[in-house]
UniProtKB/TrEMBL annotation:
<feature type="binding site">
    <location>
        <begin position="17"/>
        <end position="18"/>
    </location>
    <ligand>
        <name>D-ribulose 5-phosphate</name>
    </ligand>
</feature>
<feature type="binding site">
    <location>
        <begin position="75"/>
        <end position="79"/>
    </location>
    <ligand>
        <name>D-ribulose 5-phosphate</name>
    </ligand>
</feature>
<feature type="binding site">
    <location>
        <position position="108"/>
    </location>
    <ligand>
        <name>D-ribulose 5-phosphate</name>
    </ligand>
</feature>
<feature type="active site" description="Proton donor">
    <location>
        <position position="107"/>
    </location>
</feature>
<protein>
    <submittedName>
        <fullName>Ribose 5-phosphate isomerase B</fullName>
    </submittedName>
</protein>
<dbReference type="InterPro" id="IPR004785">
    <property type="entry name" value="RpiB"/>
</dbReference>
<dbReference type="InterPro" id="IPR003500">
    <property type="entry name" value="RpiB_LacA_LacB"/>
</dbReference>
<dbReference type="Pfam" id="PF02502">
    <property type="entry name" value="LacAB_rpiB"/>
</dbReference>
<feature type="binding site">
    <location>
        <position position="118"/>
    </location>
    <ligand>
        <name>D-ribulose 5-phosphate</name>
    </ligand>
</feature>
<feature type="binding site">
    <location>
        <position position="141"/>
    </location>
    <ligand>
        <name>D-ribulose 5-phosphate</name>
    </ligand>
</feature>
<comment type="similarity">
    <text>Belongs to the LacAB/RpiB family.</text>
</comment>
<feature type="active site" description="Proton acceptor">
    <location>
        <position position="74"/>
    </location>
</feature>
<feature type="binding site">
    <location>
        <position position="145"/>
    </location>
    <ligand>
        <name>D-ribulose 5-phosphate</name>
    </ligand>
</feature>
<keyword id="KW-0413">Isomerase</keyword>
<dbReference type="GO" id="GO:0005975">
    <property type="term" value="P:carbohydrate metabolic process"/>
</dbReference>
<dbReference type="GO" id="GO:0016861">
    <property type="term" value="F:intramolecular oxidoreductase activity, interconverting aldoses and ketoses"/>
</dbReference>
<dbReference type="InterPro" id="IPR036569">
    <property type="entry name" value="RpiB_LacA_LacB_sf"/>
</dbReference>
Length: 157
């Protein structure tokens, strides 16, 4: 809590390819209006670009602590979520609705959310991002499972 006794909005890194740039702009506007410091890592236009570049940039920002959470958008959300998850510090969830956004925070402690601009409408996407950023991890049995997603863990023979 800050001195005004209101919750502090965590910093968020944003990234998208050309297919996701319009939805990213809507998300950026909503997050800034809600008081989040926003780091927009591009893309910034509709020229065709490669989604792995932006998934990796947001993943690095979160992994290095420059942002608390990441939000990624491409056409389906699939490619950019795969890209982000190549960073071992990242648990990126591809989400299509508010329920997925809530559960991936509660159960997976996801630190990045990926959305598909060709799959999910803007209002649902904005609700999902708000839910993602305000839902705490439940811990408990989920903590043990998330631990097994860490780079150091390996299954017993
Ligand atoms: C770009 O056309 C599209 O392939 C990309 O946005 C994404 O959907 C990939 O997974």
């Amino acid at each position: 809590m800050n001195p005004a006794n209101t919750p502090i909005a965590p910093p968020v890194a944003l990234g998208a390819d050309h297919a996701g740039v319009a939805l990213k702009a809507a998300i950026r506007e909503a997050l800034e209006a809600a008081g989040h410091p926003v780091m927009d890592l591009g893309t910034h236009g509709t020229d065709s670009v490669d989604y792995p570049d932006f998934g990796a940039a947001v993943a690095s920002a979160v992994a290095e602590g420059r942002a608390a959470f990441g939000v990624l958008v491409c056409g389906t959300g699939i490619g950019i979520s795969i890209a982000a998850n190549r960073n071992p510090a990242i648990r990126c969830a591809l989400v299509h609705d508010v329920t997925g956004a809530r559960l991936t925070r509660q159960h997976n402690d996801a630190n990045v959310i990926a959305l598909g601009a060709r799959m999910t409408g803007v209002e649902v996407a904005l609700d999902a991002v708000r839910t993602f950023l305000t839902t705490p991890f439940e811990g408990g049995r989920h903590g043990r499972r998330v631990q097994k997603l860490s780079p150091g863990w390996s299954a017993s023979p």
